[in-house]
Amino acid sequence: MKILITGGAGFIGSALIRHLRARQLAEVVNVDALTYAGNPESLPGLDADPGYRFEKVDIRDREALERVFREHRPDAVMHLAAESHVDRSILGPAVFVDTNVVGTQNLLEVAREYAASLDDRPDGPGTSPGATGQADPLSPGPAGATPRERFRFHHISTDEVFGDLPPEAAAFTEATPYAPSSPYAASKAASDHLVRAWHRTYGLPVVITNCSNNYGPYQFPEKLIPLMILNALAGKPLPVYGDGGQIRDWLHVEDHAEALWTVLQHGEIGRTYNIGGDAERTNLEVVEAICRTLAELRPAGPAPDDADAADRARAFASEAVSHDDADRANPYRALIQSVTDRPGHDRRYAIDSSRIQHELGWRPAHSFEQGLRETVQWYLDHPEWVARVQSGAYREWMEVNYARRSKATGSR
Ligand code: NAD
Ligand code: DAU
């Protein structure tokens, strides 16, 4: 089976491709425009893999997409390409509408025309050039299905479409109404609606997944977990928005990759599956867990040349407020600062993933504590990857996003 994956040079797309290729589950065509978030270095060794092809294409470019479908003839599409960072969407929403809404509509149209062109005879030639017409046992659809019947369009979306979940409310199910808060979430909600409309109106065989916050290796350090790990190591402030009491439901990216593959293979056409880690944590709990893990794995503390950080650590250790001994001795924790909150910041997300667990048998393999520890270790072990992504463009973003956030209540 050959899968066209959009956004495969990003955080989740690259994890998905590494997952599929390491297990030889499918051939992959990676369609990615390589925006600031796309990084071919997150796909080590794949250049030499005959089952992997890269196409530097923007999903807003219809002609280029048509060529890619014509030349590669995929059996399925997994659509991850998107602008994905909420803070960027607040500072510049237009590109979110362009890529996430218009880009998705473009891809849907090209996929629809392509799907209609596929053979509809049970013994018709396969989708890939040279294919025999024998169904790949790993491809979706029942035995004897035609190439057209086996085709799938899998749209990868987010729990943010459901909006702000009250503290005592039950977790989001697939029936929770949409109430997106940020421009990012609204653009993803719009794209989900388009995908459902293309199924209902044109019969495009779609599956949709809505997932909670991912973490793990190769995540671009503008997102909470890698940002905090790298700032802590460098002795820089750890900027917690507002009171840090916002709750996210964390899932290891490799568990997400496995869930996506499960849904592509076995998901019911037209159906949505929520994916979550069953690991609700406040942001402050996450940042404190990172500090504890770093104190174990890198006890030497933050970069010693940051005199300011050393002063803050000393001041923290001598504070009269109650910290336990381990916290008092933790040089990273002293870097935590509360800063101006994100506008429209949702207080809580939580996913009820019982449908995918009961119907398709998937469940997360990583506990949050184990996954976080492995992730911290990964960033410690990959200084070259980190140095290269912390380029000029990254430094500019850090300036734009954090310079305008004043310290809200000082260090914790
Ligand atoms: P990311 O920002 O790390 O990667 C996005 C990728 O899309 C990049 O490689 C980028 O180059 C590419 N891209 C962006 N615009 C493009 C365009 N116009 N044409 C072609 N390629 C383009 O994002 P991610 O965190 O890997 O998220 C992937 C998908 O999963 C997104 O659709 C996101 O909404 C969804 N999602 C993310 C999370 C999360 O926690 N990160 C959780 C749930 C769902
Ligand atoms: O819920 C799924 C979503 O998770 C995905 O759809 C998005 O693509 C992905 O970016 C992520 O969105 P978040 O806004 O939740 O992720 P982020 O890492 O930016 O922030 C996580 C939480 O941490 C959020 O409550 C804001 C807070 N935060 C973030 C940063 C970058 C801080 O307190 N300080 C920070 O510096």
From TrEMBL:
Its cofactor is NAD(+). It catalyses: dTDP-alpha-D-glucose = dTDP-4-dehydro-6-deoxy-alpha-D-glucose + H2O. Residues 118-147 are annotated as: Disordered. Keywords: Lyase, NAD. The keyword Lyase applies. GO terms for molecular function: dTDP-glucose 4,6-dehydratase activity. The keyword tRNA-binding does not apply. Pfam families: GDP_Man_Dehyd. Residues 4-375 form the NAD(P)-binding domain. Gene3D superfamilies: NAD(P)-binding Rossmann-like Domain (3.40.50.720), UDP-galactose 4-epimerase, domain 1 (3.90.25.10). SUPFAM superfamilies: NAD(P)-binding Rossmann-fold domains. Its EC number is 4.2.1.46. PANTHER family: DTDP-D-GLUCOSE 4,6-DEHYDRATASE-RELATED. Belongs to the NAD(P)-dependent epimerase/dehydratase family. dTDP-glucose dehydratase subfamily. This is dTDP-glucose 4,6-dehydratase. It comes from Spiribacter pallidus.
